[in-house]
Design goal:
The chain is mainly β. Helix content is 10%, strand content 48%. The chain is built from one helix and twelve strands. Strands 1, 3, 4, 6, 9, 11 and 12 form a seven-stranded antiparallel β-sheet that branches. The two termini are 50 Å apart.
Length: 177
């Protein structure tokens, strides 16, 4: 008693409406809209970021600081909270102190890291910062340029820094829904 002729197969309109309602309910539970409270990571390649640097260059997918300055970006923060600001960097050491990488939020310096990594093995430096909702300016600053032309030949005369990328992760302190 099974018919497989399309013309005689049918479904009632009420049953079809129930199927569609069930499908919409399942889809609503399965598909989560972009929640601004949901933690995510956004990466910015340093060589592509705007910068305020008297002397620097983009080379080999890195941005090299030959003198003090900064790379920065403006991001839209959907939910106020704690965020992790990261940069993969290395330094070329000279003088008595190590290369210093400062993270700034707006005009405020929120963290300074000593960059001991070398070009052979760059490292990730990070800071957890409190960010408000709305548009925020984030920057990585080469904070302690140094040059000594009187240093003996073959010794480190110039302190420089290179950044590969900058990442923003967060918000960190929001419970998933």
């Amino acid at each position: 008693g099974f018919d497989n002729i399309g013309d005689v197969l049918s479904i009632s309109p009420i049953l079809m409406e129930r199927y569609l309602a069930a499908a919409e309910e399942i889809a609503a539970q399965a598909i989560v809209a972009d929640d601004p409270r949901r933690s995510r990571i956004v990466r910015f390649e340093a060589e592509d970021l705007p910068r305020e640097v008297p002397a620097g260059a983009s080379l080999d997918s890195l941005f090299y600081f030959y003198s003090g300055g900064e790379v920065y970006t403006e991001v839209e923060i959907g939910h106020a909270g704690e965020y992790r600001l990261r940069a993969r960097a290395f330094g070329e050491q000279a003088g008595e102190e190590p290369v210093k990488l400062a993270f700034t939020v707006g005009e405020e310096r929120v963290h300074v890291a000593d960059v001991a990594a070398t070009s052979a093995k760059p490292e990730i430096y990070d800071a957890v910062v409190e960010l408000p909702a709305g548009k925020v300016r984030l920057a990585c600053v080469f904070a302690n340029d140094f040059y000594d032309e009187s240093a003996p030949e073959g010794e480190a005369r110039d302190r420089n820094m290179a950044i590969d990328y900058v990442e923003l992760e967060g918000p960190l302190n929001v419970e998933p829904t």
